[in-house]
Design brief:
Helices cover about 25% and strands about 25% of the residues. It has about 550 residues and is α/β, with parallel strands linked by helices. Helix 3 links the parallel strand 2 and strand 3. The strands form seven sheets. Strands 12-25-26-27-23-24-13 form a seven-stranded mixed sheet, with helices on one face. Strands 21-18-19-20-14-17-22 form a seven-stranded mixed sheet, with no helix packed on it. It has a four-stranded antiparallel sheet with strand order 4-5-6-7. It binds one RNA strand of 74 nucleotides through helix 5, strand 6, helix 7, strand 11 and helix 12.
RNA sequence: UGCCCGAUGGUGUAAUGGCAGCACGAAUGGUUCUGGCCCAUUUAGUCUAGGUUCGAGUCCUAGUCGGGCAGCCA
């Protein structure tokens, strides 16, 4: 670990705890509820939980927080494991909160015996009335002073399935006037008859989050239970249980701010809505901030981890620029991604003085690393160039192709535009050009400079590709910033996906799903899982940084 | 008109009573067979008012602003 790098506040706490002898090494846990897919916000928690443990020689458990059988499913426990592993982490133990049901139940009995919990027959609504408001104290339940014997009997019968859901709950007996609502005799067990995905019909009562989480931490010997800010108000309750139960270990809960990113939404509810209403193709749609979506889009685990690290950690709500994620991706792939030439928006150029035969030119797979080898690219009389690489009436400082102008075809030769061919509507349909035979190999004996180098592909020797061009899913930095009566869906970016047929170098026909490339001058791309031999599908992960496009992109038309 | 938490450039994050720094973004220039990468430069910040102190972004008080909390969700 770098000694002089600044520490975040949780690292500081852990270091203090080690220095004072409170702990030898930190033991953490990542505790998702298996009721949905992980997103990049979870990636922050994952990197924190696993990262802290690793940094200080401890370990981290993966714990499925499965205390609500009505919402959870095995489908999710598989995807969660896959996503955590993909991010590059390995857990010490895979646990389930449901593994601890018996112990947690016994602790509830303990509380009852101690006179610190009671069975309450109030309905959900009645409990709500009794809870009071933010400014007024609550009222005690009429069932609050039942005898321990009666409570025990009732609680056992609740668990045997004798009562309907909602008929009774078990509540901790704390303080109905407490300014923190969480301590106003919170419900700790409720009746649920839905079978649990792991324990089946064994139980008819299930512990609430507050009664399961801290105790699960205690059982596992968790030293630092890291969670997001909305649980801050629950910490006094978390501690109350730890203090009032004969737990084998006392964990400490520490909260941090959850991660938001510009131009996206992060709540499970909203992501679910995007999927259900078919605004995206599924949880792994490459525009989704889910881990599986990022993976499919082409982001690397390294880039996601770096992004999370760069975003930092604190207790104030953070909204990080999406640009930072893309920066991390480009930084990672700059030195890794194989380079290829692909024309996304083709404009045909006929090189009138070019021989009929195909000529082959050598292109580096990764110019900065000769060890990565090269491939031969076929140049023919007719080629495609990017439509935006030609302008009939170029502005100053445009150094691509224009009538009478000369550019370098990457790795091949210099061409000069001699003629612009248009259709009846005046659209440019084709260009004529001549090449300088002395420029073969892309330099000339006279060493003359050409300002522009553009990518190209043979019009006759190429492979067509379905390329999916992604842009942010929302057109507003904060999609939730809406007028009265509107929702985040009104901020969906109608142009978040454009599908084009592109033409690429021939070997791309064999590209495998998951394979990543830099298409020179265009961006980073990743072969989609929909890809088939003969029908290659490629996602644009992100564009290259583009000064020209930013400055003149719109005006240049 | 309750309780809890927070407030440093556009964004994120450091400075732990002693020169407000780093990264992203933005801008400018250099370099270049990718208008990429790289290099250099620039831009821009301590919420307010008091107090403690030789000295306050940091400590104290009050205020302002922002976030969270009234599921038998997590």
């Amino acid at each position: 670990m770098p000694e002089n790098a600044s520490k975040n506040f949780i690292e500081e706490i852990v270091e203090e705890n080690i220095a004072s002898g409170l702990i030898k090494t930190p033991i953490t846990r990542f505790p998702p509820e298996p009721n949905g897919y992980l997103h990049i916000g979870h990636a922050k928690a994952i990197c924190l939980d696993f990262g802290i443990a690793k940094e200080y020689g401890g370990y981290c458990n993966l714990r499925m927080d499965d205390t609500n059988p009505t919402k959870e499913d095995v489908e999710y426990v598989d995807s969660i494991q896959e996503d955590v592993r993909w991010l590059g982490w390995e857990w010490k133990n895979l646990y389930y909160a449901s593994d601890y049901y018996q112990q947690i139940y016994d602790w509830a009995i303990h509380l009852i015996r101690e006179g610190k919990a009671f069975v309450c027959d109030l309905s959900a609504d009645e409990i709500r009335w009794h809870r009071g408001t933010l400014t007024e104290p609550g009222k005690e339940s009429p069932y609050r002073n039942r005898s321990a014997e009666e409570n025990l009997d009732l609680f056992e019968r609740m668990n045997k399935g004798e009562f309907a859901e909602g008929a009774r709950v078990l509540r901790a007996k704390i303080d109905m006037a407490h300014p923190n609502l969480n301590l106003r005799d919170p419900v700790i067990y409720r009746i649920v008859h839905t079978p649990h995905h792991r324990t089946g019909n064994t139980w008819h009562v299930y512990p609430m989050y507050d009664f399961a989480h801290g105790q699960s931490d205690a059982i596992e010997g968790i030293t630092h239970s890291l969670c997001t800010l909305e649980f801050e108000d629950h910490r006094p309750l978390y501690n109350w249980f730890i203090e009032n139960l004969p737990v084998p270990h006392k964990p400490r809960q520490i909260e941090f701010a959850r991660l938001n990113i510009t131009y996206t939404v992060m709540s499970k509810r909203k992501l679910l809505q995007l999927v259900k209403d078919k605004h995206v193709s599924g949880w792994d749609d490459p525009r989704m901030p889910t881990i599986c979506g990022l993976r499919r889009r082409g982001y690397t685990p390294e880039s996601v981890r770096e992004f999370v690290a760069k975003a930092g950690l604190s207790k104030r709500p953070q909204t990080v620029d999406l640009a930072l994620l893309d920066f991390c991706l480009r930084q990672d792939l700059e030195e890794k991604a194989t380079r290829r030439m692909v024309v996304l928006d083709p404009l045909k150029v006929v090189i009138t003085n070019f021989p009929e035969e195909t000529e082959l030119y050598e292109g580096q797979n990764l110019p900065s690393d000769p060890a990565r080898g090269s491939r031969m690219v076929p140049l023919t009389r007719e080629i495609y160039i990017e439509r935006e690489d030609f302008m009939e009436n170029p502005p100053k400082k445009f150094f691509r192709l224009y009538p009478g102008g000369e550019v370098r075809l990457r790795y091949a030769c210099y061409i000069t535009c001699t003629e612009v061919i248009k259709d009846a509507e005046g659209n440019i349909t084709e260009l004529r050009a001549t090449f300088d035979p002395l420029s073969r190999g892309a330099t000339t004996p006279d060493n003359r400079k050409v300002k522009g180098t553009i990518h190209w592909v043979s019009a006759t020797e190429n492979t067509p590709l379905e390329v999916r061009l992604y842009d942010p899913l929302f057109s507003k930095e904060n999609p939730d910033d809406v007028e009265e009566g509107k929702s985040f869906l009104d901020n969906l970016n109608p142009e978040s996906l454009k599908v084009v047929t592109a033409y690429g170098e021939n070997d791309l026909a064999h590209a495998q799903p998951g394979e990543r490339f830099q298409f020179e001058r265009k961006g980073y791309f990743c072969v989609d899982k929909d890809s088939r031999p003969g029908a290659v599908v490629i996602n644009r992960t992100t564009t290259l940084r583009d000064v020209w496009g930013k400055r003149f992109g719109d005006k240049a038309e």
